[in-house]
Amino acid sequence: MRSRAAALLSCLLIASPLSTALNSQLVLTPEYERLRRYEGTYEDEGGGTLQIVASPRDTILVAVLDGARYPLKAVGGDLFTNAPGQRIQFSLEPGREGYRVLDVDPNRLFRRLGPGDPLNERMWYPRPHSRLGYSYAPPRNRDDGLPVGAVEGAPLDRARLQQMGEAIVAGRHPETHSVLIAHRGRLVFEEYFYEYDANMPHALRSATKSVVSALVGLAIAKGHLKDVRQPVLPFFADEYPEIANNTDAKRRITVEHLLTMRSGLDCDDWNQASPGNESKMGRTNDWVKFTLDLPMRSEPGASTSYCSGGVILLGRLVEKLSRQPLASFARQQLFEPLGIHNFDWHFKPDRSSINTFCQISLTPRDMLKIGLLYMNAGIWNGRQVVPADWVKMSTARHTSLGDTDYGYLWWRPYLEVPGGRHHGIMATGNGGQKIFLWPELELVVVMTAGNYNTNSHANALAINYILPKR
Q: I need a surface site. Which of 170, 228, 308, 383 has the fewest CB within 10 A?
């Protein structure tokens, strides 16, 4: 669950207190002026648009898609590369202005449509007055159901948290958008950077998968689904009477196999050559059928591979069983009990979602509520929202993905600190979207970030500033 959209930098030099503060940090070079020739709004896949803008902070070209920023590295002339290494060729020829992705479809021109809207100037710097430094302050009570307080000692170290704030404001952990920490159920640290604030929903990317896991558990609790051992294909027989590669092995795929990434389908998002890779799925008109039609690579349960298509099947399954859109089911059964109202979820598994991949957007405070719900065995304000046995089952180890243990669409990572390891539970998404649970420490940590398709700073922040030594 990946990419997004936004706008163009055209009024960075407007005189205002904020602009003056930002412009004091700018050094406008000839290279920056050269890059501005490519700025504008361009066509994008799925009928959407993206923005190309030159960054005054880094003197690089940036593609902005649904608010997410993707750096483009200049190779020479009008040629650039993105983070995965794909070559982007721009054309400035009048009447043929646009770009081509040479390694995907070199003949397709995504046309430049015109100039973009002005971007929020805060997007370029962690804080507009970063030269003034950082000072810790306890979170505000926003009457949203989250208890707040101040840092009061172990396992947290207020001096280290102060250092973390200083480091982020100074730009040493770029594109960190928020850090929130709850200890013993109280929010004790809450900071936002760049253009983000407490009221702005943030795209969760694949951390959405952990929310889908909760909805599967709620579908069972509501009697829509008997248990996770039920075969998947019969639920889709009315909608897709003919399935390609319909083998005995495929007919043995269960709901649990999808929850644990062990369906046996030839689907691997970590392998660009995989027939079921999410990039291939995204360009099709029906993601459910695409996934159901995939060939089998192994017997269900025999191997593990990261497959977003399997989660699309689970989301659609919940819709079919509950007879309502996934976002409506989530609102009624999960979000309203938690006091979550400010969210966006466009679950439409077809080409129209190629830039959002059916992901949910939540505010960091609401992400924290989900973490606290799972830390407290599914209970919120005395109410059993998600069954305790489902929380326990979901966050238990069922398999491994790469070098990390895995449950029902929840990860079980460990982080190395001086003297040993801390074992946790995690929802995670591309770019640095994290809900960390550290049960032994009674800590829930939420981070959002924009390090898309690169290594995020989340683990380093947790190790260097949040988790105590062993």
A: 383
Task: Note the pTM of the prediction, 2 decimals.
Answer: 0.93
CATH H superfamily, domain 206-335: DD-peptidase/beta-lactamase superfamily (3.40.710.10)
Residue with tokens 């006091």: 339
Domain boundaries, given as residue ranges, for the chain: 17-124, 130-200+363-466, 206-335
What do you get for the CA distance between the two ends of the chain, in Å?
35
What is the rounded distance in angstroms from the CA atom of residue 190 to the CA atom of residue 394? 28
Q: Do the domains at 130-200+363-466 and 206-335 have one common CATH topology?
A: yes
142-194 per-position pLDDT tens digit: 999 999 999 999 999 999 999 999 999 999 999 999 999 999 999 999 999 99
Distance of alpha carbon 347 from alpha carbon 44, whole angstroms: 20
Per residue in 400-458, pLDDT (tens digit) is 999 999 999 999 999 999 999 999 999 999 999 999 999 999 999 999 999 999 999 99
Rounded Cα distance, 444 and 182, in Å? 5
What secondary structure does DSSP assign to 274-306, as a single string?
A: -TT-HHHHHTSS-HHHHHHTPPBSS-TTS----
Q: CB neighbours of 17 closer than 8 A, spacing ≥ 6?
A: none
**CA 284 – CA 107 distance, rounded (Å):** 19
